[in-house]
Design goal:
Layout: H1 11-23, E1 30-34, H2 40-49, E2 58-62, H3 68-76, E3 77-78, E4 90-91, H4 93-96, E5 101-105, H5 115-124, E6 126-128, E7 135-137, E8 141-146, H6 150-155, H7 161-167, E9 170-174, H8 184-198, H9 208-216, H10 222-236, H11 248-251, H12 263-277, H13 288-292, H14 296-305, H15 319-325
Parallel strand pairs: 1-8, 1-9, 2-5, 5-8
Antiparallel strand pairs: 3-4, 6-7
Helix pairs in contact: 5-7, 8-10
Bound molecules: adenosine-5'-triphosphate (ATP) and magnesium ion (MG).
């Protein structure tokens, strides 16, 4: 992914991009916090690509994916014979990233016993490989990310305070998608164009109703969830108009009382889903009214009341036009 593929034009996302531009030229550690799927790795790469280190390596390590016993060797490398099975001397990720950027993902899962060694590597830019007394010096910029509340882990003594402050020199907070609803349209248009091309399924139209449903969803899995959902929608759309596959409602989490869905919201979703299934046919044997057990006129009355437009009155724009207007945050927003 290039910085040009960073989609989003909401004020919150634009503020993040401004941060990226500001922090890219310096070598200070960055801590990116945000819910799952909000784009933490994408932003870490953007920082690297905008930095003077862009021609050197971007090395990523997911601290949660490596068993604790192996993590030290993964990070700092080992000498031959350092432990059973260590047949050769091996460089760790710190050394691989020399001159470039080391991305430590899921840093909240870094074992406590390894944290002092990481702190020293960050502060002194030096460490020893496992089984060696020889000090290795490196020039690495560290960008860490987590979807946990590191401050809380510190107060529970599950994360060292000194390491937290060392990593948190430049904090970047990625807001969840539900707090940047404005980004849902450009992201949807981007993903539709992307999957239409890769699945060889031309999609010419995203109906406004479909966009309204997408913008009303909570997206607990954030951009990753939206991306996967759009892939499914493109795949299962019968023609060149984007249709929503069933299941969006089931993926929505329980909301708190403060944001409880009203009956009108539930009616609206149910009617939209039935209209989708009925291919937007209102009357007749296979029409939505029949499926809902309502007289046709009652359904039309309810649709008007709930602000649901019929297909004929849809103001949807052709996808090509949408692609032209697409809000490439890095470029135009
Ligand atoms: N601004 C964006 N524009 C386009 N695609 C994006 C954007 N942000 C994220 N994505 C896409 O969403 C998916 C999730 O992004 P990423 O892996 O960076 O999230 P994450 O916060 O690291 O998730 P996790 O916490 O689960 O590791 C990726 O496929 C990425 O390409
Ligand atoms: Mg990630």
């Amino acid at each position: 992914m290039t910085t040009l593929d960073l989609i989003g034009c909401s004020p919150k996302f634009r503020a993040v991009l401004t941060d990226v531009e500001r922090i890219a030229p310096v070598d200070s550690a960055v801590l990116i916090q945000g819910e799952t799927g909000t784009g933490k790795e994408v932003i870490a790469r953007a920082i690297h690509e905008a930095s003077p280190r862009r021609n050197q390596r971007f090395v990523a390590l997911n601290c949660a994916a490596i068993p604790s016993a192996l993590l030290e060797s993964e990070l700092f490398g080992h000498e031959r014979g350092a432990f059973t099975g260590a047949c050769t001397q091996t460089k760790g990720r710190f050394q691989m990233a020399d001159g470039g950027t080391l991305f430590l993902d899921e840093i909240g899962d870094m074992p406590l016993e390894l944290q002092p060694k990481l702190l020293r590597a960050l502060q002194e830019r030096e460490f020893e490989r496992l089984g060696s007394t020889q000090t290795v010096r490196v020039n690495v910029r560290v960008v860490a990310a987590t979807n946990q509340d590191l401050g809380q882990l510190v107060s529970k003594k599950l994360f060292r305070a000194d390491l937290f402050y060392r990593l948190n020199v430049i904090p970047v907070c990625l807001p969840p998608l539900r707090e940047r609803v404005q980004d849902i349209r450009p992201l949807t248009e981007f993903f539709v164009a992307k999957f239409a091309a890769s699945l060889n399924k031309p999609i010419d139209l995203i109906p406004d109703e479909v966009m309204t449903v997408l913008q009303g969803h909570d997206w607990p899995g954030n951009i990753r969830e939206l991306q996967n959902f759009i892939e499914r929608a493109v795949l299962f759309s019968p023609g060149s108009v984007l249709r929503l596959p069933l299941g969006l409602r089931q993926t929505a989490p329980e909301r708190s009382d403060a944001t409880a869905r009203t009956l009108a919201d539930a009616d609206r979703e149910h009617i939209l889903e039935t209209l989708e299934q009925a291919n937007w046919l209102i009357g007749g044997q296979d029409g939505a009214a029949n499926r809902l057990g309502l007289p046709r006129t009652t359904l039309i009355y309810k649709m008007r009341k709930l602000g649901i437009q019929t297909r004929r009155s849809l103001g949807a724009r052709p996808i090509r036009q949408l692609a032209d207007e697409q809000c490439h945050a890095a470029a135009n927003c």
